[in-house]
C-alpha cells in the first residue's frame, strides 16, 4: 500500500461516518478480457471485506451470451475471502452467499421472472393479489440484496443492473477503467460514500 493509499485508509478509519455494508460493482465482459482482470477482482473482494462489507455483489454485463459458460467457470474458480454464488441467464434460484456474481442477468429479466412467479402463486391460490407488496416481490428476486454503494468503472452508465434493488443506493462513477482499478480507487469510493447524506428517496 502506497503513501496516498495509507492516507485514505487513515481518513476512513478516523471518520465517524459508516462504511457500506453491501457493495456492488458493475463491470463488463470486455473488462475481464484484459490481463490481470481476474486478479484485480480477487483483490477487490479482499478490499471490500477488509473495509467491513458484509456482502459484495458483482454484475458482469454481457453482450454475447455464448461467453457466459466461460465466464461462469472463471468466476467460480476465483480465490475469495468468503463463499461465492454465481448466477446467469436462466437461473432462478436466489443467491445466499457473502459474495454474489451476476453474469448477464439483467434487472429487467430478473424483475419479469419475479412477476411471473407471483402470477403463478396467485393462479395456484397460494397468494392473493392484495398480498402483493414490495416484500413479496423481493422474495422472488434472484439477487434480493440491497446495495448501499454501487461502483461503476469506465463510464456513467449502469445498464439495467438491479433496477429494483438499487433504487436508493448511492452511485459512484469513476473514469478509471477496470484494468487500471487500484485499491486507492476503491478507498476513494468509500470516502465519497462517507461524505454523502443518504436520503432513501426522501
From TrEMBL:
InterPro entries: UPP_synth-like (IPR001441), UPP_synth-like_sf (IPR036424). PANTHER family: DEHYDRODOLICHYL DIPHOSPHATE SYNTHASE FAMILY MEMBER, UNDECAPRENYL DIPHOSPHATE SYNTHASE. This is Undecaprenyl diphosphate synthase family protein. Pfam families: Prenyltransf. One of its GO terms (molecular function) is ditrans,polycis-polyprenyl diphosphate synthase [(2E,6E)-farnesyl diphosphate specific] activity. The keyword Ribonucleoprotein does not apply. It comes from Haloarcula nitratireducens. Keywords: Transferase. It comes from the Archaea. One of its GO terms (biological process) is polyprenol biosynthetic process.
